[in-house]
Amino acid sequence: MTKIVFIAGLEHSGTTILDVLVGGGTGAVALGEVSSFINSETRGSFLSRFGHFEDAHLCSCGKRHDECLVWSDVVRYISENPTSDLVMRYRKVVESVERNFGTDLMLSDSSKSIGALGTVLEVAQGRPGTEVRILLAVKDVRSFVSSMTQVRKLNVRGQFSCFRWWRGGNAQFLSFLETSGIPYHVVLYEALCLRTRLTIKGIREFLGVKGEDCVDGPQLRHARERAHICAGNADMVFRNRDEIRYDCRWFNQMSINMLYGLSREPRRMNQQFLAEHLQI
Ligand SMILES: [Zn+2]
Predict the structure, then answer these.
(1) How far is the CA of 91 from the centre of ligand 1 (A)?
(2) pTM for the predicted model, two decimal places
(3) Which of 35, 100, 139, 207 is most buried by a 10 A CB count?
(4) Range of the domain at 131
(5) How, if at all, do strands 28-30 and 130-138 pair?
(6) Ligand 1: distance of its center to the CA of 27 in Å?
(7) 30-64: per-residue pLDDT in tens?
(8) Is position 47 within any domain?
């Protein structure tokens, strides 16, 4: 049975590390943000996020997409069928993975968004024997705002909006997942970093896989050999991923800690995530 593990969540919430973790074991393949890649309208902007150097636009296996084991058939199909919809294209991705790795496997897709999840669910509905499991990646709101501040150069006003954006985004994910009734499992980034083994054990149990089918932190470097992450060269995708480290710079960022005190609803939601997934 083919199992698609869809990694949902806001950006900078640990989705890439989860993709590498889940897709790196034996019987699993990490594919990266499949939906952004197979969508002709978003592919250009998606790839440009990885820089404009040619080697950033390779599959993580080091090959060009038209030469890669997994992606070559998919890019050929898209160029020959430019009007094909996302569901048809996604089906080609699954078929290509099955052809190369067999049908008893788990593929991980870190496309993140609810829209992309809709495509995956439609694909699974039309393919008996395809199962979907969802991991929702969440990061402590203070750490999230700190990451976004670095990436987007946010001022205090921007940071304040970011707190609310985090809450709105996660509330949307939770409400979609609750109403759709699909099994999902929340992975708090802090728990993954600070209680790595326990958190990975929980992920394995949820996915119904044996130990080796979902690699452990120290084995991350082996995951590199198995992945076909659609964008970002291997060095970029796996940079700093040989072990899981937590960036605790936000501890000393006064504006973030002050705004946390002022943002009641985001704080409540954050406390709930911490209580449920880190027991603090
Ligand atoms: Zn590849």
Answers:
(1) 17
(2) 0.90
(3) 139
(4) 3-140+183-246
(5) unpaired
(6) 16
(7) 899 999 899 988 777 777 776 655 655 788 888 88
(8) yes
